[in-house]
Amino acid sequence: MGTLPEQLVRILTASIAPVIVISGVGLLLLSMTNRYSRVIDLARELVKELDVTPEPSRRELLVVQVRIIYRRTRLLRLAIILSSFSILFVAVTVLSLFADQVLKAEVDYFSVPCFGLSLLALIGSIYFFIRDVGVSLTAVELEIDHYIGKSS
User: Fold this and answer.
1) DSSP string computed for 94-113
2) pLDDT, averaged across the chain
3) Residue from 49, 67, 72 nearest 128 by CA
4) Per the structure, how many domains does the chain have?
5) Most CB within 10 Å of its CB: which of 2, 80, 81, 118?
């Protein structure tokens, strides 16, 4: 069975990769939440401007911008949710590894799929984050198009 320090070393060794994933996903999540906050602030600014803008062409442009911002918030929200699920699945993986080492419970059937789900959630999160970046470029092109000409 081994002594308590030996068990602790085995637990820590088994948990290194999942804990590194938590750290990396946490930084990604921080970036996403900062971006999400900025998009929410921008939406509020656009709505305020829309309320006071009488010019029809400018109002039309602002309405399109608000729609794009709404789409971005939905994409970022989904990316944040998936990142959070990724962290949750990694935490469950570490817990199951702990149970395996301490309680000698055979939980490979549980920890391996949980880690797989964590990686799938991370991939989904990154996918929606990348989509947000693309949509944000569309919004910028719409805003500056009349200054630089038709977009390429």
Assistant:
1) HHHHHHHHHS----HHHHHH
2) 87
3) 72
4) 1
5) 118
